[in-house]
Here is the input.
Amino acid sequence: MTEKSLFSRRDFVRASAAAAWGLSAASYARVLGSNARLNVAFIGVDGIAGSQHIPILADLGAACPCYCDADSERFGPGASRFPDAKSYTDYRRMYDKHMKEIDAVMVGTPDHHHYPATILAMMSGKHAYTQKPLTHTVWEARQLALAQQKYKVATQMGNQGHASEDLRKTIDYLRSGAIGDLREAHIWTNRPIWRQGLTVPAGAQPIPANMDWEAWIGPAPMRAYRRDPADGWGGLYHPFNWRGFWDFGCGALGDMACHEVDPVYWAMNPGVPTAVELIKPDPIGTADMFQPNGIVKFEFAAAGDRPAFDLYWYEGGLKPDRPDELEQETQLTDEGALYLGTKGKMIALPNARAAPRLLPQSLHDSVGSPAQMIERSEGHHQEWYSACIGEKPYDHPKSNFAYAGPFSESMLLGCVAQKVGGRLEYDSKSQRFTNNDEANRFVTKAYREGWDFRMS
Here is the structure.
């Protein structure tokens, strides 16, 4: 099959394949009867897919007609749970063969594949679950939020803690006014736990038979395959170190911000920041990779009765100052959150999703448990599954793309600050920085031929 005939990509994108299959986009999804099973295609089969996507959806009752991973050696979790499913290394080919029998997709790939794998499914009326960060670029995040409005399919971003009790208790405290008006949020992570800020070793190595390197590179600029560089990195890009590369990942912000910032973002509902600033570059990284550590400041404007507040993100071992109100025997852990309000403080350890405590202890004792401000969840994956099978509305999942789109857009603006440096003022309406033309180059990106998919 030639590249031109395979998938008829441009026609598919422009017309959602309606002309090819004689169907409207809305009619693609199978109508599930009382005994029908949800047919889920898994894009990415090992890693998060092998540990969560496949076993959890299988236990919920889903079937799987097909799955895809650019590395055929990672087919194991799919093959063991769904032995009759067809396997592919390129999801474009999988979609070409199976789109009519797929009801939903779960995307657990490197970040640069999140948008194309997801938008193709949504344009065909398929439900979509996509790992965090929702996309690789600011522009892509906005597009998936718009796609949910347009196609009205069930969506969920894979920040699993969004459904947790402790995270929702943090929201209860923040919204109840227990610490007054929020002035600053300080969130820190131990990431990166992969290499960053280095120069990529030169040279190429033979591509092994199990790797579809064309499909793995996907929309990114083509580069040589390397498995075992001389300095002992192990897999230079695949299967894990891709996170530190501008072309494939979103660094520590992409890995953890959609988890750790989630409580304050949900509680404050701040929209997109008006400015982002790289406070501490050490350094700004290399042409290929993110910096090894840093601090990014996000400025969120006032809205209604909520005053403006600032969010500080710390990575690579950096942390905020230890609050004086914290008892001496308690130290700041490698991850956590500290909230500074007009009436008090709140801390969450050992990570930002853990059960929070008000500071000082006397404040915590006097306030007690906050009133419940957020409904509790039946489970992160269950929320999405229930919407997919029609038991709940399409927008029932609480981390659906209407929420996850602007959230991811906000965090990805921090990645642009890490790339460019300095303070960047952002106009959300135009999706442009108003004081730095260079930064606008990184709001979106160029896609390699055959991988540029857009809503018609």
